[in-house]
Write a structure and sequence with these properties.
The chain has 252 residues and is α/β, with parallel strands linked by helices. The protein has a domain of 174 residues: Nucleoside phosphorylase domain (Rossmann fold), CATH 3.40.50. The protein has seven helices and ten strands. The chain has a five-stranded mixed barrel, surrounded by four helices. Bound molecules: S-adenosyl-L-homocysteine. The site of S-adenosyl-L-homocysteine (SAH) has 20 residues, from β5, β9, β10 and α7.
Amino acid sequence: MTTAILSALIDEQRHLLDRLEAPQRVAHAGRGFVTGRLHGHTLVLALSRIGKVAAATTAAALIERFGVSRIVFTGVAGGLGAGVRVGDIVVASELLQHDLDASPLFPRHEVPLYGRARFPTDADLSGRLAEAARQTLAQADGWLDAGLRARYGLATPALHHGLIVSGDRFVATGAESRALQAELPEALAVEMEGAAVAQVCFDYGVPFAALRTVSDRADDAAHTDFPAFVRDVASHYSDAVLGAWLRMLPNS
Ligand code: SAH
């Protein structure tokens, strides 16, 4: 059984890549994939680049070309829900494309001909991912450098579990963030890939889970918070939480 770990950007999974045992690089569909072993599992690490189409293509390639049996996305996102702060973790229970609108033919956000707007993640995989995140955050002193914690104000990062929304837009103004919150009050975080991967996994019947570390608040400061956070912090989260998650799963 092969597990795929998918991110948009290299900084979201750099440390996992460094740890991978017997890494083999494969170029396919204009993308980089690296196969190998880690914590008792056969893995494919993949970078989709940014946006829904790039993510969907990569997910389909992981399933068709690499035969993966499950996909977990790890990356960063903008916090939307009240109390979802920079440094917190959001584990998706379901995902929705916030920029999909075929109304009045179909209800707003519904994916035409699927009869649904929301795509659920796999309950078992996500439950274990949330548990791994909970345990990892409780031990943040051990893996998150005190200097980084102080610089980004990550005193007591929290775990959230719920709706993540995706769209082909970097949400970087207070006005847009408030509009999204008003339209989708349950949404905890916004990013640009997850719901596309969830739809592909739904089509193929492949279990999917998604974890996002909050890099910004999707407001006017988002573009200044974002690059440094991704560079300095995101990969430590992926390494710590996905490491704990892989150790928790039966070997594969
Ligand atoms: N300046 C960056 C652009 C990154 S786009 C670069 O040049 O590389 C933002 C990425 O982080 C996307 O992959 C998206 O999934 C996630 N993300 C983080 N914060 C976001 C926000 N506020 N709105 C949308 N996506 C966000």
